[in-house]
Specification:
single chain; mainly alpha
Length: 155
């Protein structure tokens, strides 16, 4: 009885099982990454489709309790507030896409450092902060406290 064909068959079965396990793990990892990307895209699209309306309709700011007359006295326009809302939401989606927290993204972004280094941007945040969920507000305000020493009252 020749044992060689049996050994070849067993080795072939082992390679098949190992290949299946590797392929399954790879597919699972790809599926998780795809899901994360889809969630980020959905989040970005749903938020931005709503918040882009802030650019066109100043009355919507009343829904957030934003006093545009007071903002205008400080040199802040409704478009500046809307822009910052959209910028932060885009950052949140970008962080999700790269499997990061918004805090991490902001801490490592030259763009965020540049824009928030301007005093006017920090003033605009005072108004746009009410347009964000608490988790986003906390991330931005944590960044501002660490980077600029600014503390905001809880809403």
């Amino acid at each position: 009885m020749d044992i060689f064909p049996i050994i070849v068959s067993v080795v072939a079965i082992l390679f098949s099982v190992i290949s299946f396990i590797i392929a399954h793990r790879s597919q699972k990892r790809t599926s998780i990454e795809s899901k994360r990307l889809q969630e980020a895209i959905f989040w970005l699209n749903s938020n931005n489709s709503f918040e882009t309306r802030l650019f066109d309709n100043e009355e919507l700011f009343k829904l957030y309790g934003i006093d545009l007359n007071k903002a205008k006295e400080e040199g802040i326009s409704s478009k500046m507030i809307a822009y910052l809302v959209l910028m932060i939401n885009t950052g949140k989606s970008q962080a999700q896409q790269f499997n990061m927290t918004l805090d991490e993204l902001m801490a490592n972004s030259d763009y965020v450092h540049r824009i928030f280094s301007e005093e006017i941007t920090r003033k605009v945040w005072k108004y746009s902060r009410v347009c964000h969920r608490e988790e986003i507000r906390k991330a931005v305000e944590s960044y501002l406290e660490k980077r600029h020493g600014i503390k905001y009252e809880k809403l």
